[in-house]
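Lab notebook, design round three. We kept the backbone fixed and only want residue identities now. Task for the bench partner: fill in a sequence for the structure below.
Input structure tokens:
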């Protein structure tokens, strides 16, 4: 059904999207191209934005993004970095040893049976900014947190944090790790909540020129991994080669006690983690101990028994 009909008058179907991150905005971009849909995005923060990390995309994921809407190509042109292809086609990341006597030794490349290596990188903050620029200004409601929803035959009733309610024909929850929509759908059941994996990632960007000086042109110009006991270092160009994305992932953390799942980095933590990595570790520390680095808790999504409740839907795993 393309429209709802009230007293003989046809009206567009009203769709609410909770969450103004990359997923919610990309969905809004895809839906707003259809005249029979009236799209509204509700974001709890006073302005749209995203923590400055990057997303690496496979060939299939990139094709899926482009299929959302013609305007997506314009968005991608401004925030996509291609760093894993050559004249011979896609190739895997460079692999280095980490920790111990062989720390820093080049071990070769990851090889793939098919050319599916994720050779494209999106700068998340730029992606959000460019998506916002393509959306109808009236579609995004900032500083509009959501408490939950109810639904009946007349529609889905969204309760906002200011106490008001609005009714929609459909609702999609794109509100992340601590999803209010998911909590409304499943209640307070622990089985529907994400769990801490024991892994923490220290993430951030540095100017590409700094990475090139510290790591060398060959390594900085491509994706690379360093593996060591309980530790992984990942680096790759981002933001059209202007920046270098750095990820330091550590394991063995018993719990995450912070309310937020991202907090500023304490430099001493990184020094301790890389204490036996010698010169390669020192070069990495020189780069990553900069303002703006964040510590991310890695959570695992709960396995949900279903992803829709009537006219309300959640993203699948």
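Proposed sequence:
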């Amino acid at each position: 059904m393309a429209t709802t009909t009230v007293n003989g008058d046809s009206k567009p179907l009203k769709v609410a999207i909770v969450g103004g991150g990359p997923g919610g905005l990309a969905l809004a971009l895809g839906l707003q191209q259809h005249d029979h849909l009236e799209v509204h995005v509700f974001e709890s923060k006073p302005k749209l934005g995203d923590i400055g990390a990057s997303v690496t995309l496979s060939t299939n994921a990139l094709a899926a993004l482009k299929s959302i809407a013609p305007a997506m190509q314009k968005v991608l042109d401004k925030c996509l970095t291609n760093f894993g292809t050559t004249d011979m086609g896609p190739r895997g990341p460079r692999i280095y040893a980490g920790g111990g006597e062989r720390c820093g030794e080049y071990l070769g490349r990851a090889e793939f049976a098919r050319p599916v290596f994720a050779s494209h990188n999106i700068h998340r903050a730029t992606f959000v900014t460019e998506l916002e620029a393509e959306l109808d200004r009236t579609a995004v409601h900032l500083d509009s947190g959501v408490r939950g929803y109810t639904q009946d035959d007349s529609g889905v009733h969204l309760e906002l944090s200011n106490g008001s309610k609005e009714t929609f024909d459909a609702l999609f929850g794109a509100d992340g790790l601590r999803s209010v929509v998911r909590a409304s759908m499943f209640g307070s059941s622990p089985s529907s909540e994400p769990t801490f994996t024991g892994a923490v990632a220290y993430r951030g960007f540095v100017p590409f020129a700094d990475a090139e000086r510290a790591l060398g042109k060959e390594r900085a110009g491509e994706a690379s991994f360093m593996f060591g006991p309980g530790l992984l270092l990942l680096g790759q160009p981002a933001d059209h080669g202007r920046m270098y994305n750095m990820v330091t992932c550590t394991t063995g953390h018993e719990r995450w006690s912070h309310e937020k799942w991202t907090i500023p980095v304490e430099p001493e933590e990184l020094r301790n983690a890389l204490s036996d990595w010698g010169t390669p570790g020192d070069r990495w520390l020189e780069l990553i101990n900069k303002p703006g680095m964040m510590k991310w808790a890695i959570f695992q999504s709960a396995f949900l028994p279903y992803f829709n409740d009537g006219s309300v839907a959640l993203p699948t795993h």
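Keep this in mind before ordering anything: The CA atoms of residues 58 and 118 lie 4 Å apart.
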